[in-house]
Design a protein that fits this description.
Length: 244
């Protein structure tokens, strides 16, 4: 029987042309696609490792940065360029970027770092927030409506709580929700008059026809109180640590 088989093989040797390569090619291709997707996804999540400190000028961003990165509260001056440093907690670390609040540099600088941001810390001066509410809400709206920040977690940090005239985080949240509602109205009306640009269509925040609420937007937004001066930054460090 074996001899018969051998004879047949000798008479009909398997030629390369007889093999069906299609399933092999498909399997290789599928393998390649799976590996490529895996690599891209890993790169994407690994790329987002920055924590951005942003907000209006004088809110206390550089003071917070100095406390978190250098463990001190020195005299600070209006920043004209970003501060970048490593925030360490145990064996983990993340990059902290302090974006200048001055309107001339803020947007340009934010543009550079926003695609690597995992968390956005929007620092508010709890003493002047009511007076500056229009500017604060306008700046925050721009950040939240940016498509690059949709996967980010957002922390609204109500700083300078050591001062007696500081507003609480609950009051600031209410003030901001009310003002963000107005900003949304103004921007939607402007968009309608300009006409839709489908490619660069900005996101309209919240639920149309309803009062603006942080609970309605895609980012997870939390409110905490802090004092960079008294090094009361535990809420902030706990929030960052959970994401490292
Ligand atoms: N009382 C008090 N003062 C603070 C606190 N944090 C910051 N400051 C003061 O507020 C002022 C502004 O702080 P900065 O950290 O320079 O503010 P900034 O947000 O970096 O401002 P820009 O660089 O202009 O965007 C400084 O005089 C700080 O000492 C705080 O928690 N309490
Ligand atoms: Mg600064």
């Amino acid at each position: 029987m074996d001899k018969l088989n051998e004879n047949t093989r000798e008479k009909h040797p398997v030629k390369l042309g007889d093999i069906n390569f299609t399933p092999i090619v498909i399997a290789l291709l599928l393998g390649f696609i799976i590996v490529a997707i895996f690599v891209i996804l890993r790169r994407r999540s690994a790329g987002r490792r920055d924590f951005l400190l942003t907000g209006l000028s004088e809110a206390g961003k550089s003071a917070i940065f100095m406390q978190l990165v250098h463990d001190k509260f020195p005299e600070t001056f209006t920043s004209i360029k970003e501060n970048v440093g490593e925030y360490r907690s145990g064996n983990s670390s993340g990059r902290l970027v302090d974006i200048p609040g001055h309107y001339r540099v803020r947007d340009k600088c934010f543009e550079i770092y926003k695609r690597n941001a995992k968390g956005i810390i929007f620092v508010v001066d709890s003493v002047t927030v009511q007076k500056d509410i229009r500017d604060v809400a306008d700046t925050l709206y721009t950040i939240l409506a940016d498509s690059a920040t949709q996967p980010c977690s957002v922390l609204i940090l109500c700083n300078k709580q050591d001062l007696t005239t500081a507003k609480s985080s609950q009051v600031i949240k209410t003030l901001l929700e009310k003002e963000l509602h107005t900003v949304r109205d103004t921007r939607s009306r402007k968009l309608q008059s300009v006409g839709d640009d489908e490619v660069n269509k900005p996101i309209i925040l919240g639920k149309p026809g309803r009062d603006f609420e942080f609970a309605h937007i895609s980012q997870n937004v939390q409110f905490f109180e802090s004092s960079a001066k008294d090094n009361q930054l535990n809420n902030l460090t706990d929030w960052i640590d959970r994401m490292l």
